[in-house]
Amino acid sequence: MIKRKLHFSAWQFILASVFVTFSTLSVYGQDAATNDGEPAAPVEAAGSGNAAAGEALFKANCASCHKLYKKAVGPALHEVSQKYDREWLYSWIKNSAALIASGDAQALAIYNEYNQTAMNAFPQLSNTDIDNILAYTDTPKPAPTAAVAGATGAEQSTGTADNSLNSIVLAALALILVLLVALLFVVNSTLKRFADANGIQTDFEEEKEVRRPIWKAFAENQFLVLVSAVFLLLASAYFAYGALMSVGVDQGYAPVQPIHYSHRIHAGTSQIECKYCHSSARESKHSGIPSLNVCMNCHKSIGEVADATYQEGINEYGIDYNKEIQKLYAATGWDSDEQAFTGETQPVRWVRIHNLPDLAYFNHAQHVTAGNIACQQCHGPVEEMEVMYQYSPLTMGWCINCHRETNVDLANNGYYEKIHEELSKQRGGKQLTIADLGGLECGKCHY
Ligand code: HEC
Ligand code: HEC
Ligand code: HEC
Ligand code: HEC
Ligand code: HEC
Ligand code: HEC
Asked: Which residues cross the membrane (predicted)?
């Protein structure tokens, strides 16, 4: 009777704890969900013009040269409507060159201040469009502390919610374990008392002496010993073989680079083509790493990442993306306030990831251009990599397997057209593999 009762209440307790754990879980889940809202769109400003429409126009036409709060190619435009009168702004924005040519003093002043850089003419913008743009540039600057605290605060609270959620679950599990242990003790002692009360002997000392230890029984059974010895030998040979075969294989190698450079953002989100940066992959043996000039084609005007990207970097990868761009500026000697190079440069020492031993010859053009193989087939899902890593083993077996399995792409490439034609005639039109081309000959890959 006692036992049954105990059993029942233990289950009740466990079920109750599980229920409590899950209900806190779902409450926190809801909190986290409601916390990541989009920042509110700019509201219509007090003056004339629609700031939301203006924002779209600004981003489409002006953002390449102007920022709101910082100098870029042109001046910062925040509250520019207070600097000039409307009519002047209409004519400046529609055609600044004409205004300068007319000898307007204000126009000449700003033109000379910016080293006579020409601003595009926007004859297509109506006065209403310009009003909208100015309404957008007039929207009050979000108070910096409030904005940062607001943005990171919201994210942090989801972060801490996640963390405290984890610790709550862990604490609940620990509690359940402790309770189970306590419960077993109670059950054990109750049963003992029960047995004592009924005069049942619970002392098993004597029986123990009579029983043969299990290891002795095992040692005496020769068949069992033999089987286990063979099993142990095979298992250790298997693991030793695995360990030896992985010597010198750096699959998964992902060193920390001097500038945190995300292929996910560049090749993925921004869809920049691989060959924009690794331009020599098509023509030469090496793919090469782009020089920093290539980066500055874009980063002269991209000094900061978008807010959403910034938050993602902080929360998911623990990286301050804007600081990483500052490292790029330091290395190239770019002064973003003056919009000029200072001439003080430092080389960036990228850590090399893929590296075949000197005894092997590998040529990118052969594979990318002649073989028509996508970079991803060997380098993996690069456009998803926040940190670049070695995806393939780069062993000889890996090269050979692909050469055995891959058919020569006859349709899509005129590079070896003659040879391909001849060979495929010899083989009666059967599919040609790279191995048929001689892709398994030692000399092709070894110097
Ligand atoms: C090709 C780059 C470029 C684009 C695009 C551009 N601007 Fe400009 N803007 C400039 C430059 C450079 C100046 C500084 C004067 C100069 O050198 O002509 C300037 C000056 C101005 C000024 C005067 C600011 C001041 O503080 O004196 C205003 C206003 C302005 N631009 C508005 C706009 C608007 C609105 C757009 C979009 C419809 C736009 N600009 C697009 C380059 C550009
Ligand atoms: C905007 C320039 C840029 C673009 C676009 C780009 N990369 Fe890169 N890539 C780099 C830089 C810089 C490095 C060196 C830093 C690193 O390893 O993350 C690099 C490194 C690599 C490496 C490792 C090199 C090594 O050390 O072994 C591979 C492989 C690679 N990129 C492949 C690709 C592929 C495939 C694509 C297209 C999907 C691509 N990259 C697009 C700039 C770029
Ligand atoms: C074709 C334009 C382009 C080129 C070329 C380019 N970037 Fe970027 N880069 C961007 C854009 C766009 C962003 C910001 C994306 C966002 O805000 O969501 C960015 C973000 C970054 C960031 C912050 C995110 C991160 O990856 O850590 C760094 C650092 C950076 N770039 C470094 C480089 C380096 C180094 C090179 C040269 C090898 C380079 N970029 C070449 C467009 C470019
Ligand atoms: C057939 C497999 C294969 C393909 C396809 C391939 N790579 Fe590679 N890649 C390699 C190997 C192997 C290495 C190591 C080469 C070495 O150490 O000599 C490498 C090295 C690199 C490096 C380091 C620098 C260098 O050249 O040694 C970069 C960057 C790179 N690859 C980018 C690319 C890009 C971009 C593409 C697509 C245009 C591409 N790869 C296509 C196998 C491949
Ligand atoms: C993803 C498949 C793939 C992998 C992996 C691969 N290759 Fe290739 N390889 C090819 C293809 C396809 C060609 C044929 C190109 C052509 O049409 O001429 C080729 C051709 C070659 C050739 C020229 C062969 C000839 O007869 O002209 C050499 C050398 C070569 N590969 C070396 C290597 C080495 C070294 C590795 C490993 C580091 C490697 N390959 C990995 C697909 C691959
Ligand atoms: C398709 C290209 C390819 C062909 C064909 C090829 N190898 Fe290799 N071999 C490699 C690569 C790549 C490595 C380096 C692998 C590594 O670092 O793990 C290698 C490594 C080796 C090694 C090991 C060297 C060491 O120090 O670890 C030997 C030995 C070797 N190859 C012999 C041969 C012989 C013999 C043949 C002809 C029957 C041959 N290879 C054909 C690509 C090839």
From this structure: 168-187, 223-241
Q: Each residue of 61-77: pLDDT tens digit?
A: 888 888 888 888 888 89
Pocket residue to mutate for ligand 5, from 287, 355, 399, most atoms within 8 A of Cβ: 399
Measure 299 CA to ligand 3 centroid, in angstroms.
Answer: 7
Ligand 5: centre distance to CA 241 (Å): 27
Cα(433)–Cα(138) distance, rounded to whole angstroms? Answer: 65
Nearest Cα neighbor of 445 from 403, 406, 393 is 403
Tokens at 361, concatenated: 């010859």
pLDDT digits 0-9 by tens, 279-312: 888 888 888 899 999 999 999 889 889 888 999 9
CATH number at residue 127: 1.10.760.10
Above 80 in pLDDT, residue 176? yes
For residue 235, tell me if it sits in a domain.
no
Where a domain ends, among 138, 171, 188?
138
Which atom of ligand 5 lies closest to the CA of 371? 15
Q: Is residue 14 part of a domain?
A: no
Measured in Å, residue 93 CA sits from the centre of ligand 6 at: 65
Q: What is the Cα–Cα distance from 415 to 331, expressed in whole angstroms?
A: 40
